[in-house]
Automatic annotation (TrEMBL):
It comes from the Bacteria. It comes from Gimesia panareensis. Residues 214-234 are annotated as: Disordered. This is HEAT repeat protein. InterPro entries: ARM-like, ARM-type_fold. Residues 215-234 have a biased composition (Basic and acidic residues). SUPFAM superfamilies: ARM repeat.
């Protein structure tokens, strides 16, 4: 099949930028199959990178939540922390689907302001799916500050969203991923590794508390080392 023969859906009624909708729709298709459509992947990605103004307008002004979320997530991947103002606006979108998608993608962007907003979403948003996604985003933030929040959610929030996952299980997944990345990056002892399938909440909780204690105990030594380095520099 030729790429031009693929029946991509038309833009939603009332869309302000049907051409951009089509580019984003095609991008969502080829980004999962870049080896099957390498030329199309490069061309579509290159074109979208040149359309930051149109993407911003779509993410903030289009009426269709799917359109807004796709534009927002591409912009986040492209601009990252350089457009915190935009990301925070995306997290305040009126539609839960947009908040969910944006929060989920923040696992790859670590920033204190975003972390604070993710904590709010994970603990206070009315939609369980958004709280789940915010847990996912928190899994990429600073462990020392977010582990207590994730443990609290694991213990307390057992509501399930439309996706079928409980918020508690999403918190366990986030902690499990954090332990499998942060822990292993700092300690090369094979203490913890990501298991196949869903994590055991009780085991993840125990390991997270142990890791948190280690981080807290390490803080004075790290601060002392920083002060020594500053003194040597002066």
């Amino acid at each position: 099949m030729k790429f031009s023969d693929i029946p991509f859906p038309d833009a939603p009624d009332g869309s302000r930028d049907p051409e951009l909708w089509m580019l984003l729709t095609q991008y969502e298709f080829v980004r999962w199959l870049p080896d099957d459509w390498p030329d199309e992947y490069r061309e579509i990605t290159s074109r979208l990178k040149q359309e930051t103004d149109r993407l911003t307008a779509a993410a903030l002004e289009e009426s269709e939540p799917l359109f807004r979320s796709r534009a927002a997530c591409f912009l986040m991947a492209l601009c990252r922390e350089s457009r915190l103002d935009l990301i925070l606006k995306f997290l305040d979108d009126e539609h839960e689907f947009v908040r969910e998608q944006v929060a989920r993608h923040l696992v790859s962007i670590r920033n204190p302001q975003l972390e604070g907003r993710l904590v709010e979403l994970a603990t206070l948003d009315a939609a369980a799916d958004v709280r789940c996604a915010a847990c996912r985003g928190l899994g990429g933030q600073e462990p020392l500050s977010v582990i207590p929040t994730l443990i609290h959610i694991l213990d307390q929030d057992h509501e399930s969203g439309e996706n079928g996952w409980s918020v508690s299980s999403c918190a366990a997944d986030a902690l499990d991923e954090m332990l499998g990345t942060e822990w292993m990056a700092r300690r090369q002892e094979g203490v913890c590794s990501l298991p196949e399938g869903s994590p055991n909440p009780a085991a993840v909780r125990e390991q997270a508390l142990f890791y948190l204690q280690e981080l807290q105990e390490r803080q004075p030594d790290e601060k002392k080392s920083d002060r020594q380095s500053d003194s040597e520099t002066d």
